[in-house]
Amino acid sequence: QVQLDESGGGSVQAGGSLRLSCTATGRTSSLSKMGWFRQAPGREREFVARILWSSRITAYGLSVTDRFTIARDNAKYTNYLQMNNLKLEDTAVYYCASSDSITAGEWEYWGQGTQITVSS
C-alpha cells in the first residue's frame, strides 16, 4: 500500500500562485508515476498533470498547460505542482494520485484532497 499526503492548498486571488506538495509513504519502491486531478462542485474529476517517476516525463491537462508545472524529488518521494496565473475556474479540490504502472489511466492510490479557492 501507498499513502499520499498532500499539502499547500488554500485561497489566493486570481493571477496569484500556489504550490502543492504530495509525499508518498509505504510501498514506494514500485512507484511509477504521480499526478494530480481536480474536481469542482457539480463537475467531473479532471486530469491536471502527471510525472513519470523514472524518466520525469510530464503531461498536462489542456486547461493548465503553460500555467502549471509538475516536478518531483526522487529522494523524498514527493512531487510538487507549481500553479501560476491562477484563474477562478481553477477552484476545486485537488487530489494527488500515484500508480505502480506507467499505463495511462491507471491510478491505484489517492490522497484525501486539498481545497484550492481562487477569488477575484
Quantity of strands, as a count = 11
Low-confidence stretches: none
Largest sheet: 7 strands, mixed
Radius of gyration: 13 Å
Q: What is the mean pLDDT? A: 96
The first-to-last residue Cα distance is 40 Å
Number of helices: 0
Approximate helicity band: under 10%
* Broad structural category: mainly beta
Please state the overall shape, judged from the principal axes of the Cα atoms. globular
Tell me the β content: over 45%
**H and E order:** EEEEEEEEEEE
Compact overview of the structure:
By secondary structure, this protein is mainly beta. It contains no helices and eleven strands.
Secondary structure layout plus pairing:
Blueprint: E1 2-7, E2 10-13, E3 18-26, E4 33-39, E5 46-52, E6 58-60, E7 68-73, E8 78-83, E9 92-99, E10 109-110, E11 114-119
Parallel strand pairs: 2-11
Antiparallel strand pairs: 1-3, 3-8, 4-5, 4-9, 5-6, 7-8, 9-10, 9-11
Can you give a write-up of this model?
By secondary structure, the chain is mainly beta. Helix content is 0%, strand content 53%. It is built from no helices and eleven strands. It has strands spanning 2-7, 10-13, 18-26, 33-39, 46-52, 58-60, 68-73, 78-83, 92-99, 109-110, 114-119. The strands form two sheets. Strands 2, 4, 5, 6, 9, 10 and 11 form a seven-stranded mixed sheet that branches. It starts with a strand and ends with a strand.
